[in-house]
User: Fold this.
Amino acid sequence: MIGNMLHIEIVIIAILASVMCCLPGVFLVLRGVAMMSDAISHAILLGIVVMFLIIKNLTSPLLIIGASCAGVLTVLCTEMIIKSKRLKQDAAIGLVFPLFFSIGVILVSQFARNVHLDSDMVLLGELAFAPFNRLVLNGIDYGPYALWVIGVALFINILFVVIFYKELLISTFDATFATMSGFRPVFVYYVLMIMTSITTVAAFDVVGSIMVVALMITPASTAYLLTHKVNNMLIMSVIFAVLSAIFGYFIASYADVSIAGSIASMTGVFFIGVLFCGRKKIKKYV
Amino acid sequence: MCGVIGPNGAGKTTFIKAILNVIPVASGTITILGNAFKDVRNKIAYIPQRSSVDWDFPITVFDMVLMGCYGKLGWFKRPGDLEHMHVYEALAAVGLEKYADVRIGALSGGQQQRAFLARALMQNAQIYFLDEPFAGVDIATEKIIINLFKKLCDEGKTIIVVHHDLFTASTYFDWVILLNKRCIASGPTEQVLTSVYLERTYGNITFFR
Amino acid sequence: MGTSLFSVDYTLLLVLQGAALLGIVAGVLGSFVLLRQQSLLGDAISHAALPGIVMMFLCTYSKNPWILLCGGAITGIIGVLSMHYLCTYTTLKKDAILGIILSVFFGFGLVLMTVAQKIPTSNQAILNKFLFGNVSTLLIEDISAIALISCFIMIMLMVCWKECALYVFDPLFAQSLGFKTVVIETLLMILLVLTIVIGLQTVGVVLMSTMLIAPAAAARQWTMRLSSMVVLAGFFGACAAIIGVYASSVIEHLPTGPAIVVAASCIAFFSLLCAPKRGIA
Assistant:
């Protein structure tokens, strides 16, 4: 009975995490900045470490704020470099986040060696331990802490996508027209980046950066191959993400392998499946 | 209907962009309908020369044209049935009714241009700015577009077109602006499209009139 | 540590040589990668190498890093080929393709790593070293291997310099002149994979991309000519590597990989801020 509860809790966390990731992921893919998810998911280590060194508490929600700041800072620095025209977008991205990540790793090695905060964890996470870290208020067990964190972040993401759908669509599709129509594409872009940061931060403890990147980009890309409407793309991404989470988890628990890696691999399996069997968008040769 | 004409590099696109506040002005002020640009933004529609659009974007013609009403709706409001009806009207006006559910990447060059026009129609603007709308477009599409412009002019709208072809300019436009890094002439077509001004704009080239 | 800041022991000298070689080669090859706007390709290939490394370990149980890196090279090349396929046959954008390959391959590598960790030998530690690199375990054989591969890469580049330079600046023009761009692209990809292979031991999967990007990005700010840029990038790369290794040997608890990355990034940011304006990129 307890064993089943454990499974169920982990699966629920995994499902919520996957939906939470694929929502901003759809717009990152549409916008052509998918690698920002990789960048942000590595750079937040710096934010977490700095915040930890200030407040000396690993479970505080303030860590999320620190990490989100690091995420936004990464985007700001990258954008500044791109605007200066000294480097193109790919080089700018690839220059900023490894620096932040390295500084984070160095800070951990210097000041936080004995703490359960290591770069392995940022990369890999450990979903299996999630149910053991519970949110207990006034003696009542509200369930795994991670469930609440991810649940709240998921809610925020859904809220953003619903409220800003039209603005996201027009800013991503045609920024000039968006400006002409009175919208602010730059503002919307930063909203998207904040969404990405919050998502990555909420997920890092349990699933690590690699799974976040996989869940942000791959289900969205799989859906991209199948449809030419953004609403359908959102719905299909969620379906693929959830399926990847469920199948990935069960394969991982059956074979006793890394859950995060398994889920990430499953996103790839679905992608390959759609690539070879689905109605794919073949490039026309001009 | 006004044509902005000049050789390459004359600054025609820059001229339009300056009016529309896309690039900063070096000196002087611009008023549109008596106001600054941002106050009359809703009355202006602009179709740029080469669209910054990603043709692989998963969006249908219908949804793209629907975006034309976003400006009037403002932040957070959703388009409703009324807006959907307007989209069909706009598509009919440019002859693309049958393409509503087609993804934009599947359109030909002329159809893409017409789709942008439909989107501009949705904006229900007073003044339309178009940068080289006939570039790379076939004769049939050009005729559809010009008829649409004439209808809009009859409704009292103003259409300002950056144009490259002198021969069609004389028949299309009733007002012409000649530019070559500065304004050479601006006035009714018959008065402006004369060899004197044309030579000053283009240099010493023989024109068949 | 030694009696003075400047006394260098034998191991350190070895490590400095290896790192410097890596810095030079990564800087040189990174110049081509940067100009072709494929900077994040290094990141993707590095991550794609992980499953290969682990699979090789599962097949051979070897402790020899070079054997493992062969596996890494294989999956690295498979990753490149997959990216090329996706680029040609789907409308997905480059960034999404990079992200997919990076995360899926690496995720699969993680799965394999947990499989390997269950095997009752003590050799798995070697796998962890590829995540972040561990320069201090470089032996003289490793340095010789690094030197050999580096020489090969440099010789190939020198021999095909004209073709590579032309291809980087204007691939269509190169094709119209009769050069088979496929061959040049393949050559550059293979050299890139080799560079990453030697780099994985030093800085690890996560940080390898900086070794390719930062020195080249720095060099780009100072010159417009490819030949100067390549030389400068190699120089910056070597400097960053030497500074990083030395700093990590002198300062306690300073991991080498991140130290090299910080050094390289500083050089890059300094160049971005202080180099004279050279016009639009």
